[in-house]
Design a protein that fits this description.
Bound molecules: heme C
Strand content: 25-35%
Helix content: 10-25%
Distance between the termini: 82 Å
Structural class: alpha+beta
Length: 380
């Protein structure tokens, strides 16, 4: 009753479309605080972001427009229903938008063609029990609290049957899944914020699930999840041994996860004073190959023609990996060892400015952890 009273006091409240998608701008009228963080998320930019647009263009140029529709099914998921394959409607550009996620009524991961069941229109599916809204119907959904919800886009097998995105299955096999820790528990924690604006519903909850849903683009989160230790070293004769340990202690899946272009590398450098006398690189990566054995280095190839896995040296959830490296013929006197773990993503982006549209290479490289030790000869 209170609700109706407030609604009439406010006059016209924005309503959602009862038989079609509704823009995030409408949801924002009442769900301001959720909208403010979603707008900054990669989900809201999954269609417009230049990195995606470059790869999408390559896909269409290399494999044809039909293959491009596959990309749209996750990066502009409303096209599953609008069939707006030329991206003419504004809702398409909203990418993974509010209304898409909150219209999901079921996920069936055994359906390889399309695991997502959606009900477009009046009802919004969400985790709150006993919620009531003057703008839309509400359906309580336990699915929204579970990893299967995210799996519908974060697990993908390409036409060759190769798992290109395996974040869900990596999680499924982990201790986190056994303990019941879902994607949302790490990626959408409860934070202070109004579920609905005060003037619309004064008694609505005052904590919200964080909707920026960040991953490795939030480097602080990576730094908390992955640690690097130098466990010891030995300098025997002219050989130096270094013993290190890299641990995935906080990531609920492999580190790195997702696209095969996401990789980490541990750089170990032995120095005499400031001059490098030896260097090793230990990669943490999944390397995919085409049918003909050519390594895959781009997103459009990974999603379309990757056929098998050459190697997978990523850190499994909770894995602590010992690394031993030896440097031979060391003659130096003032030795030090530095070890640095980087997260890297090499890709391309579509730039659109006064010189027109073009694709440019991008390399992102972030420092995750770093250690430095002085090394003395054995027995001293
Ligand atoms: C006129 C205001 C208004 C608009 C516009 C609006 N909502 Fe809501 N919404 C509410 C209110 C009020 C609640 C109930 C909160 C409660 O009872 O605690 C709610 C609840 C929800 C819930 C929670 C349901 C649950 O069971 O967890 C979801 C999800 C939701 N809205 C999504 C949306 C989406 C998506 C849009 C845009 C398509 C939207 N809303 C537009 C007012 C609005
Ligand atoms: C409708 C498809 C879809 C659903 C459902 C979905 N995602 Fe995503 N997600 C994407 C796409 C597409 C991207 C890539 C966006 C881009 O960068 O272009 C992405 C990106 C991400 C990222 C990367 C952000 C970063 O900083 O690197 C994280 C983390 C993430 N999603 C987590 C989740 C979680 C957790 C859920 C479930 C609550 C979820 N996603 C549900 C499609 C989806
Ligand atoms: C990637 C999918 C996704 C997108 C995009 C998304 N949500 Fe959500 N939303 C969720 C999930 C999952 C939950 C429940 C999380 C939980 O309970 O652990 C949720 C919860 C909610 C709730 C219930 C209150 C709360 O915080 O738990 C509301 C209201 C809501 N979302 C509104 C919105 C609005 C408005 C937008 C757009 C501005 C939006 N959502 C975008 C997946 C999404
Ligand atoms: C125990 C906490 C935890 C759980 C559970 C968890 N994640 Fe993550 N996730 C992280 C951390 C920490 C990172 C950053 C380090 C990394 O990239 O692994 C991350 C990164 C990501 C990324 C970014 C990948 C990249 O390199 O850009 C995506 C996408 C993602 N998670 C999706 C998911 C999905 C989907 C699930 C559920 C199937 C999930 N996560 C479960 C903690 C978690
Ligand atoms: C099954 C859903 C799905 C399909 C289909 C899909 N993607 Fe994605 N894509 C994602 C998710 C989820 C992420 C982000 C997280 C990750 O890397 O794990 C992503 C990330 C990306 C990124 C990185 C964006 C960034 O900002 O870092 C590019 C580029 C990309 N996809 C291109 C494509 C192309 C091109 C296609 C079509 C050939 C495609 N995707 C098809 C789900 C999908």
């Amino acid at each position: 009753m209170l609700l109706c009273h407030i609604a009439s006091a406010l006059g016209q409240l924005p309503q959602v479309n009862s038989d079609d998608w509704t823009s995030a701008a409408v949801c924002a009228e009442c769900h301001q605080s959720i909208h403010a963080v979603w707008r900054e998320s990669l989900h809201s930019k999954s269609w417009v972001n230049g990195v995606f647009q470059a790869a999408y263009r390559r896909t269409k140029e290399t494999y044809g427009a039909k293959q491009g529709r596959v990309c749209m099914s996750c990066h502009a998921p409303t096209v599953r229903h609008t069939k707006d394959y030329d991206a003419k409607e504004p809702i398409t550009a909203e990418g993974v938008t509010c209304d898409f996620c909150h219209s999901v009524k079921g996920v069936d991961m055994s359906d390889a063609v399309d695991p997502i069941r959606v009900e477009v229109g009046a009802a919004k599916y969400g985790p709150l029990r006993h919620a009531q809204s003057p703008a839309h119907k509400i359906v309580n959904s336990e699915l929204h609290k579970r990893s299967e919800f995210c799996a519908s886009c974060h697990e993908y097998r390409n036409p060759n049957g190769l798992t290109v995105l395996g974040t869900y299955s990596e999680w499924k096999g982990s201790s986190y899944a056994k303990r019941g820790t879902q994607c949302q528990d790490c990626h959408m924690p409860l934070v202070p914020g109004r579920v609905v604006a005060l003037d619309v519903k004064p008694d609505a909850p005052t904590s919200v699930n964080l909707h920026n849903i960040s991953g490795s683009h939030d480097i602080e989160r990576v730094r908390q999840a992955v640690t690097l230790e130098v466990e010891g070293y030995e300098w025997i004769g002219d050989r130096v041994w270094a013993y290190l340990k890299v641990t995935n202690k906080g990531s609920g899946h492999c580190f790195p996860t997702g696209l095969p272009m996401h990789r980490a590398v541990l750089e170990i450098t032995l120095r005499d004073g400031s001059a490098a006398v030896g260097m090793r690189e230990i990669p943490f990566e999944i390397v995919m190959l085409t049918k003909d054995g050519k390594p895959i280095s781009t997103e459009h190839e990974a999603f379309t023609v990757a056929a098998r896995i050459r190697s997978d040296t990523r850190l499994k959830p909770n894995e602590a990996r010992r690394i031993e490296v030896a440097f031979d013929k060391v003659k130096a006197t003032r030795l030090s060892l530095s070890a640095t773990l980087f997260y890297e993503y090499t890709t391309e982006t579509l730039v659109d400015d006064e010189d027109g549209q073009r694709i440019e290479p991008v390399q992102m490289k972030f420092l995750v952890a770093s250690r430095r030790n002085t090394i003395r000869p054995a027995g001293r």
